[in-house]
Amino acid sequence: MAVTENLMGVFVIYDAIIAGYGPTGAVAANLLGDAGLNVLVVEPSLEIYDIPRAVHFDGEVMRIFQAMGLASAAQAFSVQGQKLRFTNGRNWDLFEQDLTVVPRRHGWFNSHFFNQPRMEECLRNALAKHPNVTVRLGWSVSSLSQTDEGVTVQLVRAESDQVTDEVDQQALTAEVAQAHYLLGCDGATSKIRTALDIAYADLESDEPWLVCDLMLDEHKNFDRSALQICDPARPTTLVPCEGSHIRWEFMLNADDEFADMEEETVVRKLMAPHLWRLSSSLTPSDGKLVRAKVYHFHALLAETFQKNRVFLLGDSAHQMPPFLGQGLCAGIRDAYNLCWKLRGVVRGEYSHEVLATYTSERRPHVQELIHTAVALGGVIQAKNPLKALLRDCYLMLGRALPWLVSFLKFGEETPIGPGLFATEERFVPRGVVGKLIPQSTMKLCGADEAEETIWSDELLGCEYTLVGFGVEPDDLLPRGLQESWLHTLHIGPNGLADEVAGKLTHWAVSHGIALALVRPDRQIFGVCFVTAPDPRAEVRDILNSLRQRLRRKDLD
To answer: Whole-prediction pTM value?
Structure first.
């Protein structure tokens, strides 16, 4: 952090400025706050938008909340979904997935339904412990410029005090701020993206849907299965969320008057034929309708997520149809991927070039999710009766032959793109690198039987970790690294901790892995195999590979 004086007075040069204080911006602020960086957050809205928008996050995002110390809070503002069911207009059961039995690679249930305002409140409250993070509500970025050393932004008030003097008005409504980096988390209409002149690639999805939120009375009991009604006459989505909140989505037809569809009488008429699916006791007048708005489900992807010292995250970088429930997840993954790299660069531990891996890792991952969401949308939105019948038969056949519906990817992790990983073939087995190391429950070796278990992520630390499976990593490290930046963890009966259920060890054994070098974001940089003839040389070489990628001098 530095302090500079110019004609406008004395001001702070921040490590990072975050434009936008939605979930993505708030997660980034917490992560950079945890890292000790000096951060400014600006947001035009004075209050949290009190209408739910996103309603789903997955087990990987829950794992990120865990890393932020917010796992318990996230459980409080979310509910685990029980089942996902696909039916058609004839009420045939096409497909069903019990979301509670999907493999828990990340340790948590893979589907959580939540209320977004409560999530945002939790994330903002968590920032209270970070005096190094300044939040300015009612302000936004109007313009920016950057050099090789930093970014300068013009800040403007969204709503200014009423004054008559033109000079005073300008002083009240405009400021300049400087930072080493700028994070654009300012949504689909991003001013940051516009200022950078970054184009969107259109991935061919533009369908109008009516999105509605209904709050039932607290005493009402209802089925909590998420339901996709694949009716060619009007595809409909029904998602019970946290508490009494139910999300409804209705695809609009060409002859629908969009403005009329937002009228409450029309919305309740659309809901009425499906209420029995929730409960036989519900009536069309039950519950409070808190939102009914027409949206176009887009599939858009920024051509790059970075220009020099400015980054795009969340909806400013990508938009996808909601059929996979991955829009919010993608934004939070953006923040998690970028922030640990920023921490290392700002501290002088990593080369600035490391930041280029943000786009190379995140953009292909998001692109794959968008393609999958668009494909699933094509299944759900089929309106041609013949195509719909063929779809119905295909999905019903998938109940007997699950591999036919593997494109739904429930619980399956999509690998991120190439970037900050080992490049040598012997360190990068297929299906391992580009994915997070599995998370399992552990017990410290020698601990009392009554002692509570601990998540394996809690033992990894916040830096690079060399994990040994039945192997002591400290015995294989080059001289001088045992007490340096590299964390080590020995899993096994003779190590620091042993597994309760053996999931992580099973993963290592199934791939023949003796050691795994894990990044701060739990991505696997590379591995060493049990068949390596000289384990010490393998460790030295994989650490040298890391040195080259990070340009760390202390690995020479």
So the answer is: 0.92
